[in-house]
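Hey Z.,

So I finally got round to the zinc ion thing we talked about over coffee. Here's the setup:
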Amino acid sequence: MPMLADPQAASRLLAERFAAAARAVVFTGAGISTESGIPDFRSPGGIWSRMKPIEFAGFLASEEVRLEDWRRRFRMRREFAAAEPNAGHRAVARLVEAGVVAAVVTQNIDGLHQRAGVAEDDVVELHGNGTRAACLDCAAPMSLEAAEAAIAASGRAPRCAACGGLVKAAIVSFGQPMPPSEMARARAASLDCDLFVVVGSSLVVHPAAGFPELARRNGAGLVILNREPTPLDGAADLVLRGAIGEVLGPLAAPGTPASG
Ligand code: NAD
Ligand code: ZN
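And the result:
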């Protein structure tokens, strides 16, 4: 497993890999959004060092827990709205536009890939999207603004206008089942690519972290770009240990092999 830490050399090698691929998949984690000012979970100072996650069972069982979950979602919505896509997101969008990357599979819930220009159809959001909410029973959508207004007016967690069910931010909480359609799309993309590039993921969250393994077993090249080691580094063809913007950013520039 060759490992490279020089950003310029890493950038060139990565561009070459993309240029040689017929169908690439980019798989992103929270690390691609830290340069937009959104903290990840597992870096020092990351979200886990500040608060405990809310489990799905707790959300279902307790009004207190639901209200705490909503407070976090409203804070997060403001944080996402204030953030801008960074050089890494822009490079990924450029590679999709150039037809090099066939799908972006993300664990992120911040919507920044789409805001960088990747079409909704080209993004698989494995853990949902924190800028939306929906009824857990009938899937009727509710905006976070409407949810916030409802709580301000009643002091209670919002219920679905159509069926009375619990409304929840459209993210996959701990203990909540993964969305079957997104899982199927991620699986299909992983089996249908000849290059799988991990960007900014600790690769410890399952089942998401199973997709790079699946692609690898199916014969795709595996490249991992992450600041810290991951459990899959040993299985990768190439490990790039750098800052994402520095390594991926130059790939958005005209004249690089991948930008055709
Ligand atoms: P993670 O926090 O477990 O790992 C992020 C990895 O990115 C770390 O290994 C870190 O070393 C690396 N990293 C951070 N900034 C980097 C940079 N600038 N350059 C290179 N590497 C960098 O994140 P994960 O693997 O995505 O899994 C955590 C879960 O957190 C996911 O389920 C995701 O849904 C959720 N999450 C999402 C967001 C978001 O949407 N932006 C933010 C926090 C957590
Ligand atoms: Zn409903």
